[in-house]
Amino acid sequence: MTLQPSKITIHTVGDSQVAVHSFGALDAPYALISVHANETTAIEAAKLLIRRGRPLVLHTLVHKTSRRVSVRFGTKTITVDPNRIFTHQGIAVELDIRRFPSRSAWVPPITQLAAELVARFEIPSRPVAISIHNNTQKGSLTVHHYAKGKPQQKEASDVFAAAENDPDDFYYVTTPALFQQFKTMGYNVVLQHGQATDDGSLSYYCAAQNIPYVNVEVEAAGASMRTNQKQTQMLMILDAVFVWNKLSGQPQNV
Quick check: is 248 in a domain? Predict the structure, then answer.
């Protein structure tokens, strides 16, 4: 059964429009955020939990089924990564303003779009911002990339990788308390560095605003359903961390 959006909002940027589809109970205590339309494993796992009655709302940024969003300004069309527009520095890099100074005129409308998305995702009013993402099956991003001597070392202040866990599947958090909680439970987890690179990501924005943030990063589904089930399982683990079901007042077994 296809899950229908509970609400659709349209956001205009330049001469283009992007939509946010929200699924589930809009007044749910926790929200899941998906900004990359091609990361369907994450999106479908979240929808599955909503169909099962979990008290969640899922906000998805809807555009062409690709990672980047096309934005048109008059006769010019550019693409931006929607997870790189939440800071001025991120937008400047996405627009490559150093090489193309004339694109500075496009900064305000993209900044406005980012502000509208933050408001639509209700990030300031939620107890924690929860993003859902997928990486590729070729190991383009794993928990090991943040270890000492690895490419993303400077972006992490602490890393825990359990030998029995798939390195493609991990949590990325911005507070030591969340890091310790996932580590104690035995799950791969990365703690974002307090001096992480300003890449315009939602994680950087939330850290700068002192908003707790969790990204659930899972390998994209391939021929089998393992990764779809894995993403669902990792989302369910948040039940134990944040206690979505408040009827019993106790974390559920997951």
Answer: no
Total domains in the fold of the chain: 1
**Amino acid in the structure at residue 156:** A
Please report, for residues 117, 146, 178, the alpha-carbon distance to residue 192 in angstroms, rounded to integers and kept in the order given: 22, 9, 11
The residue type at 37: A
Mean pLDDT of the chain: 90
Where residue 133 sits, what CATH number does that domain have?
3.40.630
Measured from the Cβ of residue 20, the count of other Cβ atoms closer than 10 Å reads 21
In a domain, 250, yes or no: no
CA neighbours within 13 Å on the CB side: how many for 113? 28
The β-bridge partners of 192 are 156
- Non-local (6+) Cβ contacts of 136 within 8 A are 219, 220
Q: List all residues 6 or more positions away from 247 whose beta carbon is below 8 Å from its beta carbon.
A: none
* Reported pTM: 0.91
Q: Which candidate, 163, 221, 172, places its Cα nearest to that of 193?
A: 172
Q: Quote the tokens at residue 30.
A: 């926790």
Q: Residue 87 half-sphere exposure, CB side, CA atoms within 13 Å?
A: 16
Per-residue pLDDT of the chain (254 residues; tens, 9 = 90+): 689 999 999 999 999 999 999 999 999 989 999 999 999 999 999 999 999 998 899 999 998 768 899 999 999 999 999 999 999 999 999 999 999 999 999 999 999 999 999 999 999 999 999 999 998 766 679 999 999 999 899 999 999 999 999 999 999 999 999 999 999 999 999 999 999 999 999 999 999 999 999 999 998 876 455 557 888 999 999 987 886 654 433 334 33
